[in-house]
Specification:
The complex is a heterodimer of chains A (497) and B (512). Chain A has 497 residues and is mostly helical. Chain A has 20 helices and 4 strands. Chain A has helices spanning 12-31, 35-39, 44-70, 87-113, 120-136, 141-159, 166-197, 202-212, 218-235, 243-250, 253-276, 283-303, 311-332, 335-360, 378-381, 383-396, 403-417, 421-446, 460-475, 481-496, and strands at 76-78, 83-85, 363-364, 367-368. In chain A, the strands form 2 sheets. A two-stranded antiparallel ribbon of chain A has the order 1-2. In chain A, β1 (76-78) and β2 form a beta hairpin. In chain A, α4 crosses α20 (481-496), α5 runs antiparallel to α6 and α9 packs antiparallel against α11. The longest helix of chain A is centred in the middle third of the chain and has 32 residues, at 166-197. Chain A is globular. Chain B is mainly α and 512 residues long. Chain B has one domain. Chain B has helices at 7-24, 29-56, 87-106, 115-134, 138-147, 149-159, 164-193, 198-201, 208-225, 234-241, 244-269, 271-297, 302-321, 326-357, 368-371, 373-387, 393-408, 410-435, 452-470, 473-496, 505-508; strands at 66-74, 79-85. In chain B, α5 (138-147) packs antiparallel against α7. The model of chain B is unreliable at 503-512 (pLDDT under 50). Classes of the chains: A mainly alpha (497), B mainly alpha (512). Chains A and B meet through α17, α18 and α20 of A and β1, α5, α6 and α7 of B.
Chain lengths: 497, 512
């Protein structure tokens, strides 16, 4: 396998980001308010400190993205087979870094207004990002768990970041308890797998599983089920979605925005890798699990969202639905399927960031509002903002020529090709149901009487992020080839070995 | 004359350029509104002029696709940006580009709020419509086909009447539910044949049992769009609530998309399944013709009446399409074209008095001929064209459809013909109640006849209706070369009779 104990090159991005994160922590501590002032209630001094640390963190993320994109796309395995870098991990890492950077930008103004701007926020996001990058590069159940926990622990803290808000702390606690439960399930599954296969390394598992594919020991299958359940929990797929609506609603909005993109993409990529690489030969067993999870998620995402009045809760259900669609690609378990999943999550990233950017602009007299009805008549008061959100909503319901349509196209194609007609039909029908609530948002913005306008201005950085992501969603159809090509290369990497 | 230009792409995307221009206009509300109106009008007129070159340069002797443009688009899937037209699509491209400036002119004063957004929606709509008729790649076709929903949803929902929200949702969700199944069918075809290129697919034979399912999936989409009974219920709602111009485009072009789909995909690509389902389509078409005519007879709202009459007329289209002979197919195409102009004009006619009186209730009118002679004349021409009087465009199409149907199935022709009688009944009844009689209502005493803008709108429509009725040859010539191959495919499949008809055979099989 060409292992070399002293070769750190493939892990450069993670190392760089981790060291950079620690440096930022130091900078934040030493440059910010000190002593009792630091611990005391929020003061503008915190904001100044947080702002500079956040921009530095964004800079670090961008540099890391450059390092990642400079990595060779050939598969290389290091740290005694624990860590792998290939086209798949590069693609996923770029999405993760982009998601983290964009949502960090969205957070700056919001955190200051809500008097919760502290430099730890950016640092925690950086550490979570390191965890996510480790996840998608995991080549062993142990390193998988390490990455997952590094990510999760940071996420628990940011969920409760508005520490004097009951809702936020409740969200953090809920996330922590349920997250720990899911980690437990995952570990239990991993130990079962180890017990019956005798190894935790992915290539080792793949060899053993391929050997015994015909009559895999029951314990191994059990382990696989638990691992899948744990991962389904992390991607927030039904029926392991319970935490999502509460956590999405309770967390501060920038945190929700972050949750809905970066960790989701990381967990999805991890899910795909675990299913395809070590357990690929057991496809006959696990496709049923994914099939059920996918249908339940699409259905729940469609029906449960209809009655929501809080836009963040709506987005929580919407994200559950979207994971269902992404997993449609995984069911077929082949290269086009994985390409579909990757394309879907990439497009989802842009639509979701744009949507949350608009949600973050929803404030009146300095106070954030979260009800869907608050968007009433936005098309007359702020036409551009309304247009951006309308583009996202149409795109999420999969109406061409917007980007979301292409996402659906590429996940349903492999499902049809592999003969999962029932799944495809249910999938498209639930997309019609979900169109109903996406349209409701458009209806409220365009058809209803205007409510008072939201506060202006919305900030330059925010404007740029919003314009960039919504234009991407709108104009993706003009030149879709590069993203699809990259996703194809990334997907092929999983099947090369 | 303009060979070498990517004429189809120009016609398709020029409106989008206009929309982009309107988007950038800044200034006070009044300035923006006025600029938007003019920009939209001139863009759509220019588009129309360009599209006329298509007809001028069109070679009516061949059934091949013309003005073909191909560009790589999604190489990973072999999906290309491919545009081209043949005899089936040419005149519908022209219909779309012809009706759009008329609609914009008709909205000149009727639309007062958010004019900029309205005009942008209309121009985007035009791009989608034209693109749909030109697309020669199934995925591209689907994108345009579905893309229509977004501007139309906004047009109904923002500028519509009282129940606009309900209607807009119903319109959107109904059509979306049908279309997504078609998307799966397209993906399946792609998977089976590894291409989405329409001309190539016309030469690929698909297994009959596969055809069966694909046909149903396409049918789900097109039947809703046409609309066929019993999935027509979105149409009256959408028509009643949409602003006048929205109704015109809806009846004039959007309904044709479904019928176009049948002629482009169902019949030529899935001929065996089409033969198999022919009796089924006949039954639905005849129910549509008779039932919706009866429903139209008792309507009290003018727009609703015309909406139901649209469903009935589209029944002739589906009937003609599935006769599978040249007369039937040409009749279907001609009826589509004629209905596009006539029903559009009828909605404009309702719009004229709605703008003056703000009601569409038939009982609120009567005796308009005394105050509005010119209006009464235009109304009469269109009413008679809708009835199918010889000398108007309506006659040619319905006659050909029925002649085709008579060859294919005498009973179907018999039942369909009763629809013509009912059509005459409800249209004449409407005309009598609105235009003739004494002018008794006080508020009608001061109603004014057509103004200059309205004269400009109606003049080309009247001319066209009479031209198509008296000298239909130029139009039929365009249809002729392309109807032949469609009918030939259908005929070959009928002779082969791979899929045996089942329960519908009792009513549909012609006694030999």
């Amino acid at each position: 396998m060409g292992e070399n104990g002293f070769n750190f090159m493939p892990a450069w991005p993670e190392l760089f980001l981790a060291v950079g994160g620690m440096l930022l922590l130091m900078i934040g501590v030493f440059r910010g308010p000190k002593g009792r002032e630091a611990a005391a209630t929020w003061s503008p001094a915190h904001a100044i400190n947080a702002r500079s640390v956040t921009w530095l963190a964004i800079g670090l993320l961008v540099i890391t993205a450059f390092i990642v994109s400079g990595q060779p796309i050939e598969r290389s395995v290091i740290f005694a087979g624990m860590f792998v870098s290939d086209a798949f991990s590069i693609f996923a890492k770029l999405l993760i870094l982009l998601g983290s950077a964009l949502t960090l930008i969205l957070a700056i103004d919001y955190n200051e207004r809500e008097q919760m701007a502290r430099f730890e926020y950016a640092v925690l996001i950086l550490f979570a990002t390191v965890g996510m990058m480790a996840m998608v590069s995991a080549n062993d159940l142990i390193s998988l768990y390490l990455g997952l926990e590094l990510q999760s622990l940071s996420l628990y803290v940011v969920a409760a970041f508005r520490r004097d808000s009951l809702q936020s702390t409740e969200a953090g606690l809920k996330y922590f308890v349920l997250g720990a439960l899911s980690s437990g399930m995952l570990l239990y599954g991993a130990s079962l797998v180890y017990g019956f296969a005798g190894t935790t390394s992915f290539p080792g598992l793949a060899a053993i599983v391929a050997d015994q594919a015909a009559e895999a020991p029951l314990g191994l299958i059990f382990g696989l089920v638990f691992v899948s359940a744990g991962l389904a929990f992390k991607v927030a797929a039904a029926p392991f979605h319970m935490w999502t609506p509460d956590v999405y609603e309770g967390s501060p909005t920038p945190v929700t925005a972050f949750f809905s993109v970066a960790p989701k993409i990381a967990a999805t990529a991890l899910f795909v890798r675990v299913m395809i690489e070590p357990f690929g030969a057991l496809g006959d067993q696990w496709w049923q699990i994914i099939w059920v999870i996918s249908i339940l998620s699409m259905g729940l995402g469609a029906f449960a969202a209809i009655n929501q009045t809080n836009i963040k809760r709506l987005m929580a259900y919407s994200s559950i639905g979207h994971i269902g669609y992404a997993l449609v690609g995984l069911v077929s378990g082949d290269e086009t399927g994985v390409r579909g999943v990757l394309t879907y999550v990439a497009i989802y990233l842009f639509m979701n960031v744009a949507t949350f950017a608009v949600i973050l602009c929803m404030r009146r007299q300095g106070k954030s509002v979260e009800r869907i009805d608050d968007l009433s008549g936005l098309a007359t008061t702020q036409p551009l903002l309304a247009a951006a959100l309308a583009i996202c909503m149409f795109s999420m319901s999969g109406i061409p020529p917007l980007a979301g349509f292409f996402g659906k196209l590429y996940v349903f194609l492999p499902a049809i090709a592999a003969g999962y007609y029932g799944l495809a039909v249910i999938g498209v029908l639930t997309s019609v149901v979900s169109a109903f609530y996406y349209l409701r948002v458009v209806k409220i913005m365009y058809f209803d009487e205007p409510a008072p306008a939201f506060d202006q201005p919305i900030g330059t950085a925010m404007c740029i992020v919003l314009a960039g992501t919504s234009l991407f969603t709108l104009l993706f159809f003009v030149y879709p080839a590069p993203l699809l090509g990259a996703a194809a290369v990334a997907a092929a990497a999983l099947f090369a070995g | 004359m303009m060979s070498g230009w990517p004429l189809l792409s120009l016609v398709t995307f020029l409106p989008l350029v206009g929309a982009g221009f309107i988007f950038c206009v800044r200034g006070s509300d009044e300035v923006v509104a006025q600029n938007a109106r003019h920009a939209a009008l001139w863009t759509s007129l220019l588009t129309f002029v360009l599209s006329i070159f298509l007809w001028v340069d069109f070679d009516v002797r061949t059934s091949d696709f013309q003005f073909v443009e191909t560009r790589a688009w999604i190489p990973a899937f072999g999906i290309t940006y491919k545009m081209g037209i043949d005899g089936v699509s040419l005149l519908f491209v022209l219909l779309s580009t012809f009706l759009t400036p008329i609609c914009i002119l008709a909205s000149w004063e009727a639309i007062e709020t958010r004019v900029r957004e309205y005009m942008i929606s209309f121009l985007v709509l035009e791009t989608m419509m034209v693109g749909m008729f030109c697309a020669l790649d199934m995925v591209l076709f689907y994108i345009f086909f579905e893309g229509v929903l977004i501007p139309m949803f906004l047009i109904i929902g923002v500028w519509g009447g009282k129940r606009r929200v309900y209607s807009a949702f119903k319109f959107f969700l109904y059509t979306l539910a049908g279309s997504v199944l078609m998307l799966l069918a397209i993906l399946f075809i792609y998977f089976e044949t590894e291409t989405t290129d329409i001309p190539a697919l016309l030469n690929i034979y698909i297994e009959p049992n596969v055809q069966f399912w694909l046909w149903l999936a396409f049918f789900a989409s097109f039947a809703v769009k046409v609309p066929m009974w019993p999935v027509h219920t979105w149409l009256p709602d959408a028509h009643v609530e949409a602003p006048t111009a929205g109704s015109v485009i809806l009846a004039g072009v959007l309904l044709k998309m479904g019928a176009y789909g049948f002629l482009r995909f169902s019949v030529p690509m899935l001929p065996d399944a089409s033969v198999f389902f022919t009796p089924f389509v006949y039954v639905l078409s005849i129910i549509a013709i008779i039932y919706t005519s009866l429903v139209a007879l008792v309507q009290e709202d003018m727009k609703k009446l015309i909406a139901y009459s649209s469903v009935a007329h589209m029944g002739f289209v589906t009937l003609g399409t599935f006769t599978g002979n040249v007369q039937g197919v040409e009749g279907a195409l001609f009826t589509m074209l004629s209905h596009g102009i006539v029903s559009g004009a009828l909605f404009l006619i309702v719009g004229v008095i709605y703008d003056r009186m703000h009601t569409r209730e038939i009982a609120r009118y009567g005796g308009l001929v005394h105050r509005m002679p010119l209006y009464a004349f235009v109304f009469m021409v269109m009413m008679l064209a809708s009835v199918g009087l010889p000398g108007t465009s309506g006659f040619v199409g319905e006659f050909l459809s029925l002649a085709g149907a008579f060859q294919a199935n005498t009973w179907a022709a018999l039942f369909a013909t009763t629809g013509i009688i009912l059509g005459a009944a409800y249209m004449l009844y409407l005309y009598r109640r609105v235009v003739f009689g004494e002018l008794t209502r006080q508020d009608l005493k001061n109603i004014t006849d057509l103004n200059l803008r309205e004269k400009i709108i109606f003049a080309p429509l009247v001319v066209l209706v009479l031209w198509m009725g008296i000298y239909p040859k130029p139009f039929l010539d365009v249809f002729a070369a392309s109807s032949g191959p469609i009918a030939a495919r259908y005929h070959a499949a009928k002779t082969a009779a791979v899929l045996q008809p089942g329960i519908f055979s009792l009513i549909a099989e012609k006694p030999e």
